Amino acid sequence: MKNIQKIKSLASEYHTEFVEIRRQIHANPELGFEEYKTSTLIANKLKEMNIPFQIGIAKTGIVAIIEGQNPDIKTIALRADMDALPIEEKNDFGYQSINKGVMHACGHDAHIACLLGAAKILNELKDDFEGSVKLIFQPSEEKFPGGAQAMIKEGVLENPIPKYIIGQHVLPTLESGKIGLRAGKYMASTDEIYLTVKGKGGHAATPELNINPIVIASHIIIALQQIENQNRYNGLPTVLSFGRIQGNGLTNIIPDEVKIDGTLRCFNEEWRAEAHQMITELSQSIATDMGGNCVVFIDKGYPFLVNDIPLTEELKKHAIKYLGNENVVDLEMRLTAEDFAYYSQKIPSCFYRLGTRNEAKGIVSNLHTNTFDIDEDAIETGMGLMAWITINQL
After folding, report:
1. Which of 91, 209, 349, 391 is least enclosed by beta carbons within 10 angstroms?
2. Band of the pLDDT at 236, cuts 50, 70, 90?
3. Secondary structure class of 339 (helix, strand, coil)
4. pLDDT band at residue 229, thresholds of 50, 70 and 90?
5. Which domains, and CATH codes, for the chain?
6. Active-site hit among 14, 186, 302, 322
7. Strand residues in 239-347 grouped as ranges (E)
8. How many CA atoms are closer than 13 Å to the CA of 3, on its beta-carbon side?
């Protein structure tokens, strides 16, 4: 277990430094493709560590390289996302967001801190490993079409070509000090569904003169639930949920049209395409049969995320050596989505979870909530583990 005690010692020594980095980023959150201050902070830290980098990739992204012995022999990429969410923070702990309506409610501040911390450890130990480490600081994970796709188009997976890419994401349902992994399919594809149901509005007391799009919309929503219940591909789950219906009528006014917005999540590309067709045909046929019509727009989003099985199994073994068997858990499939999936469709990848929950400290809020926070002890775990698994994979 080469370097394990050295890495643990360095992670402990540097912990306070990268907690402060995390707090600076948390207090100054920026939305997707607007992470200019965040990018500058990362660049300044890389300069301080004498790690060469390129800035301005996909607008605000950064790519850096740490070269060990025989740097061309193998390259492993490590990725952190940088953007925040349009949420008004309700925390009051001295480093809450100073940008009104913007908050790091998904832990990307911690992802950056962990990757920078791992970079410092790896840079200090670069004479102890062969190969290179590519550090990817990616913009706009939260905002479709996402920064991963943009960075790939700009060559982030080239010159040098990584053999693997590894990502780490906080998980507030998992206790701090633990990590979780799942080999194979892990996170779902995500599509946005937009339906515009058109009828003929009028006075609510004269239904014989109207074609009520609200009634048509209700039939469409009920009918589309059968798609969620499909069990066609080895029992893999599907979710079709509608979160907004907008009619703009009144108690005695039937509107001309109703808009319905929803999301489709699944784990199979053939079924995904078939579900798109079913949504379109079923919505339009119901509307037509009831005297109206329906315009369907499906905005195809991130693909499903698949963790390379051999790579994930290797990382699990490394994690057990570093953290102990009791602190490494197997995860269930998630119907949430991540644009890390674009990397996983290109090269062998592993996207694992870093526990950040601490009930004793009152740190229990879920992702994407206005009181989200992390147990900052997790940063020591995250940066040390990332450095450890990287060295073992080189």
Report:
1. 209
2. confident
3. coil
4. confident
5. 4-187+304-393 (3.40.630.10), 189-300 (3.30.70.360)
6. 302
7. 239-246, 253-254, 257-266, 293-300, 305-307, 328-330
8. 21
48 a catalytic residue: no
Read off the tokens for 231.
């069990």
Whether the upstream peptide bond of residue 139 has omega within 30° of 0, thus cis, is: no
Q: d(Cα 48, Cα 381) in Å, to the nearest integer?
A: 23
Please pick, among 35, 89, 338, 376, the residue that the annotation labels catalytic: 376
> What three-state secondary structure class fits 126?
helix
Give the DSSP per-residue string, 189-237: EEEEEEEEEE-B-EETT-GGG-B-HHHHHHHHHHHHHHHHT---STT--
Beta bridge partner(s), residue 69: 130
Q: Which amino acid is at 122?
A: L
Which pLDDT tens digit goes with each residue over 300-320?
999 999 999 999 999 999 999
Q: Active-site residue 233, yes or no?
A: no
Helix (H, G, I), strand (E, B) or coil at 259: strand
pTM of the model: 0.94
